[in-house]
Amino acid sequence: MKYVIRRITADEWRELRAMRLESLLDSPEAFGIRHADAAVITGRIWREQATKAAASADDGLFVAIDEAGAWAGTAGAAPLEGVPDTAHLHSVYVTPAHRGQGGPARALVEAATDFARRHTAYGRLTLGVREDNHRAMAFYRRIGFHDLGMTVPYPLDPTKALCILDCPNFRVGR
Q: Which of 122, 152, 111, 81 is nearest to 8 (CA)?
């Protein structure tokens, strides 16, 4: 299957909401918010999030659109709050029907990474993967990310940890 990978538009807040709520039901351990909390976010806030993800100079969200015109996944890049000189990948999700060989996951991560290279001055691009999310960890390693040997507490369960992975050659020659 072929996918169109593009930046979200400001008017796609309903699609953003639907995809985020789906991701939280499908993979609750992969994100830093609970489905119940996201479900009560107002339409105004979703519109603000979509507008920012569509137009911000340093915070972008990308979507994969399948041949039928449906959203198949998302991935974003933004500055990492509180960590100097670092951007991070966030909101990486692919619907179950589009996972695996030929799916859009790699293209989404590449789009978000390229955006961070072009639109931020940060020297590093990282992401956090919960220590027991072996499928995601294997995917990121397969596409070249490497483990920094650092962990931070998982926000929704401090007894779990997020492993921090780094994008090699993010700023070649810097």
A: 111
